[in-house]
Design a protein that fits this description.
The termini are far apart. This protein has one domain. The chain is built from 14 helices and no strands. By secondary structure, it is an all-alpha fold.
């Protein structure tokens, strides 16, 4: 049941809806992490005169395409099954009441070869919508174009040869003219991660940065920051400070090993979770009449945890044949385009 339809939510209910409602906020944090890892390395290599577009594009395309095409095929297949067999509630054709997260149109409208191709070329939200029910794919297009924009702009700063400067200028102008304003608007959030990576002084202390981050999350989640773009940049800056404060630690944080294992298939989770959840919820409602608009309670929590575990497990299984093979794909690309090791 939607939070707005609850009559008198208690503390436990409020806590559940609060902690499970971070959607766009998670994307903002993801952008900062990406800027920190990808942009920071590109900046360092550019500053040293060692940046190579050939190696960089091989690294980025192998990372993204290791999972993307399989995820698009899987998502389209699950959507087709859901649309034809499990659409009793109407999630797939928008015949239901209310909204469902990032699904803003009938799934049938975006299950086309044109949309598939656009998503495969990171042109969703630019030339086509995300494929089918997989609305979270919007941010992947943003991510790809940030990968292109940043090194292009960095080449104008470090001026490593006339050809590099000319190429960087053309790429920068192309992005500024071709990309939608919304993609350009959030580029600054991604750049906050780059700032964190080159920040020399590891301040503030981790406990203060952590407090600021938690406080900002509460303000954002409670919608107390309503300035256009303001909350995204406020959250990005708070997380940037957290990264800065932790980057210089000599000891690993508790749970570091578990985090590393989860990170090994996090990209697969990102690309596959929504179509899996959509078909699971729709199938449960079609077959059992349960799972949508149910009153909040322990049965609902168990159902939620089951769906969550199922989506994570499916992503892990998919990652064994895709994301886990990223390095193999990268080496093949290195050999194909003759990148020196």
């Amino acid at each position: 049941m939607d939070y707005g339809h609850l009559a008198a939510p208690d503390l436990l209910t409020n806590a559940f809806y609060f902690f499970t409602g971070f959607g766009h906020e998670a994307v903002v944090i993801f952008f900062v992490i990406s800027g920190f890892l990808v942009g920071g390395k590109a900046w360092a290599l550019s500053a040293q005169g060692r940046f190579s577009w050939r190696r960089y594009l091989a690294d980025r395309t192998s990372r993204l395409y290791a999972v993307l095409l399989a995820a698009l095929v899987l998502g389209a297949g699950l959507d087709a099954v859901g649309l034809h067999f499990f659409n009793r509630y109407g999630l797939y054709d928008m015949s239901h009441e209310g909204a469902v997260a990032v699904v803003t149109r009938s799934v049938r409208e975006s299950l086309t070869w044109k949309t598939f191709l656009a998503n495969g070329l990171f042109l969703q939200t630019i030339l086509a919508p995300p494929l089918g029910s997989n609305g979270p794919l919007w941010s992947l297009a943003y991510e790809w174009w940030y990968y292109i924009m940043f090194p292009a702009a960095a080449s104008l700063i470090f001026r490593q040869g006339k050809a590099a400067v000319a190429a960087g200028l053309l790429l920068t102008l192309f992005c500024l003219l071709f990309l939608p304003q919304e993609i350009l608007r959030l580029f600054g959030v991604w750049l906050l991660g780059v700032v964190a990576s080159v920040w020399q002084k590891r301040v503030p202390p981790w406990w203060l940065a952590g407090f600021v981050l938690v406080l900002t999350l509460v303000f954002v989640r409670a919608e107390w920051i309503r300035i256009p773009m303001g909350w995204e940049y406020a959250l990005g800056a708070a997380f940037m400070l957290a990264l800065v404060s932790l980057a210089g630690r000599e000891t690993r944080l508790p749970g570091a090993d578990l985090s590393a294992r989860l990170a090994d298939f996090s990209y697969s989770v990102y690309l596959t979770h929504f179509p899996v959840l959509m078909v699971s919820v729709s199938a449960a409602f079609t077959l059992m009449g349960y799972g949508i608009k149910e009153p909040f309670g322990w049965q609902g929590i168990i159902f939620y945890v089951t769906l969550f575990a199922g989506a994570i497990s499916a992503a892990w299984a998919i990652s064994r044949g895709t994301e886990a093979k990223t390095n193999i794909l990268r080496m093949k690309l290195y050999k194909w385009i003759k990148v020196l090791k």
